[in-house]
Write a structure and sequence with these properties.
The chain is mainly beta. It folds into 4 domains: 129 residues, Beta Barrel (Cyclophilin), CATH 2.40.100; 117 residues, Cyclophilin (Beta Barrel), CATH 2.40.100.10; 46 residues, no CATH class; 134 residues, Cyclophilin. It is 14% helix and 41% strand. Strands 1, 2, 3, 4, 5, 6, 7, 9, 10, 12, 13 and 14 form a 12-stranded mixed β-sheet that branches.
């Protein structure tokens, strides 16, 4: 029978399982990532985000339709059944009372609202005595639950006909008949049927209008071994956990349609990656970085904590950390003109830094240094996540495998070498992964907030049972990694090298054979 794997048609025998189809398509898929199957379409009835409220009075019924902008307003509207119109003015209709004491909301005074708004107000500031307000004109309102809102979209003319005492006799969401996809998540041993479409990865085509944010996405995918993890899911989008990044610029904004991928550029969730399942209007805080061209079915069925495979078009073009020979081979393969600055074997910087800008310009300038100016380190991210993030931020390694350290103190006879940090950021470093016994030579550490020189970075040149890599006692030292190559470089430093730059390259544990 015929099935499809990521759009590719494959032949499998009757009764074949998911793993058989993946093997036939030549796909290697880890068993701990989400795989989805699309089985076709079906007719269904579903709730909309519009709510009907039916009033009865004077031997007639008047129906008003409300577009609900928040689920809490839908709950409030459901509780209106049996409530009455309590007051009517030229500006508003008040219906209630209704109890909202179990809902989370924010109260503001003197809020100006447009006509035909539906809001919740607390005239007595008592959440058990709330009212739903239907506005007829633009007006200022006191004690408004500002984040529980909606809009009258049908029956606006009836607002002028409602009178005190009219009763809400019926409420409920409007239903609509839709054609929907039948999509399920599957495991390797699930059986397939003729015509099934399997999806093993989410393919994102990047938008060159947001090159910096796109690079952040590329870095996150690369550092997570081609995966993204669902951190939050709601009815509108999936939010994926990012690698740390700071000071993202305002880039391209636009409609957030189904399949649109954005990166938040400000606020506490700066750097978060979003894939939209429902359309939303443009917003300045979200940079549009691309569009899902295959695999939205995976986004539909994934839940919080799930990991999904991700491919990007184009792939990342990062030359930093490569040997000069590797960089030249990569540039030739991608049709990119390469210019080399400096003499040496290791690429430590590139311009432009962003993949999309490199492709757009068709050229890249790389800076190289001799291998004896680069030390290699393995970072203990699981054991000291906050301090490792600090180290990457200070060295410029948040989105690159190579960064810089400036020599602060170099006395080999004292058994350590220290590098400048950021005292302001260092003051936020709580103790984590502090030493318990001997600190071996090559150990990389940072002074935490328990000591005066917080943020200072150091490497031990000799073992010590008393002091960490920055010369502090154990309670003031966070251990963040170890030097796996280049200890001879560090041991050669002396006072004349204070202020000079040492390049540091991260080697991930899977790559480290030392």
């Amino acid at each position: 029978m015929k099935v499809f794997v990521d759009g590719e048609e494959v032949e499998v025998p009757e009764g074949a399982k998911v793993r058989d189809a993946l093997e036939a398509a030549g796909k290697e898929v880890p068993e701990d990532v989400v795989v989805a199957v699309f089985k076709g379409e079906e007719e269904a009835v579903k709730e909309t985000d519009r709510f009907r409220i039916v009033f009865e009075g004077d031997d007639r019924e008047l129906e008003v339709t409300v577009a609900v902008e928040d689920e809490r307003l839908a709950e409030v509207c459901e509780r209106l059944e049996g409530a009455r119109v309590s007051w009517v003015t030229l500006d508003e209709v008040g219906v209630g009372p209704v109890d909202v004491s179990d809902l989370n909301y924010k109260i503001r005074r003197g809020v100006e609202v447009p006509p035909h708004s539906v809001i919740v107000v607390l005239p007595s500031n008592d959440p058990t005595d709330a009212y739903v307000l239907f506005t007829k004109r633009r007006m200022a309102v006191e004690y408004v639950c500002t984040d529980v809102t909606g809009e009258v979209t049908a029956g606006r003319e009836f607002l002028n006909e409602l009178d005190t005492g009219y009763e809400v006799v019926d409420t409920g969401p409007l239903m609509e008949r839709v054609t929907r996809k039948v999509v399920h998540r599957v495991s390797p041993d699930d059986e397939l049927e003729e015509g099934d479409h399997l999806y093993t990865r989410v393919v994102i085509e990047l938008d060159d209008g947001s090159p910096v944010s796109a690079e952040h996405l590329l870095n996150t995918v690369e550092m997570n071994d081609g995966r993204l993890r669902v951190g939050f899911k709601c009815d509108t989008y999936d939010s994926f956990e990012p690698r740390p990044f700071y000071d993202l610029p305002d880039e391209k904004t636009g409609m957030r349609d189904r399949g649109t991928v954005t990166v938040r550029n400000t606020g506490s969730n700066e750097g978060n990656i979003y894939v939209y399942r429902k359309s939303r209007t443009p917003i300045d805080s979200h940079n549009v970085v691309g569009e899902v061209t295959s695999g939205m079915e995976i986004v539909d069925v994934a839940v919080e904590g799930d990991e999904v495979l991700v491919e990007t078009v184009p792939e990342r073009l990062n030359f930093v950390g490569l040997s000069l020979e590797e960089a030249k081979e990569l540039a030739e393969e991608k049709g990119i003109e390469i210019e080399v600055e400096g003499e040496g074997d290791i690429v430590v910087d590139q311009e432009p830094k962003e993949t999309l800008n490199v492709i757009k310009e068709g050229r890249v300038k790389v800076k190289v240094v001799p291998e004896d100016q680069v030390i290699e380190v393995e970072l203990f991210e699981d054991e000291a996540p906050r301090t490792v993030e600090y180290f990457r931020r200070v060295t410029g390694m948040l989105d690159r495998p190579v960064g810089k350290l400036k020599v602060h103190f170099a006395y080999s006879d004292l058994g350590m070498v220290m590098f400048e940090g950021d005292e302001k950021l260092g003051r936020k470093l709580v103790p984590e992964n502090t030493p318990k016994d001997t600190v071996e030579a090559g150990t990389l550490g940072v002074t935490n907030q328990a000591k005066k020189h917080a943020g200072l970075i150091g490497v031990r040149l000799e073992p010590s049972d008393e002091y960490g890599p920055t010369g502090e006692t154990f309670e003031g030292t966070n251990i963040i990694g170890r030097v796996v190559k280049g200890m001879d470089i560090l041991r050669s430093l002396d006072q004349s090298d204070i202020g000079s730059v040492i390049y540091v390259k991260e080697v991930r544990r899977s790559e480290n054979t030392g």
